[in-house]
Amino acid sequence: MADLGRQRARQGPLNAVPVAIFLLIGFAAPLLGVIIFSFMPERTFSLWQAPGLGNYATIFTGTSYLSLLWSLGLAAVTVCLLAVICYPIAYGLARVFGRWSTLLTLLFTIPLFVSENVRLYGWILFFIKNGVMLGTLKSLFGIEMESWLFTEGMIVLGMVYVYLPFMLFPMTLGVSMVPQETRDAAFDLGASKWQVFREVDLPLAMPGIMIGFLLSFVLAVGALVEAKVLGGQRVIPIVHDIELAFTYAQNWPLGSAMAVLLMVVVATFVLLVLRRFDLDTILGRR
User: Fold this and answer.
1) Residues 6+ apart with CB under 8 A from 214
2) pTM
């Protein structure tokens, strides 16, 4: 048995070689290429030019840093709204709705099978002047209102709508992991509903809640379609500047620098949050 264990231990690294090669080619190599390109002179397609920090200086001397701040701000607002909206739904799915939870979960999942563009254009038909909502209000009640489209609020609405499942499902998992016996014990000891929520429900469900926070935030920072369709480019997110740099401007080094900056900011935030939690416990390794 001991020899068999040592043999399996030696085979472990060999079995991991295909996965390591796949990660190097599919993930590390493109990422390394973007990082290298970010130090090249502007509008240069050669990696042999003199590298420098000119592209990063261009970001902060121009307006691209404002796009980054807009992306971070909209993502933060979206995550906060999603937390307020999703927690009651997650609590209901985990503890209240019972046999209806499966049906409700399916209803929240079905929109994911429809293109995001199609769903957002559906919101345009709903909120456009004389559209579904405003047209109905005018016809039935004589209330005439201006279109709500192409505002920052509509961008946030679109982001909340699109990324709701990515906050809801991890949060539901976190709420469902809180033992009912622990809650009952807290009530038996005289705790109020607010105390049980603050001292029992929230701390024990926090791993799932934070996973939902991080997943929603990372996706929302990279949101582009919502700003284009619902915002009418009133707000320019950083991913829009990156797209322009790689396509119309043909300035790959500048686009790479913006992409690297975005990755660094988001990765730093994620790592700072994850440091507060034991990933082994969250992933069930112990």
Assistant:
1) 270, 273, 274
2) 0.85
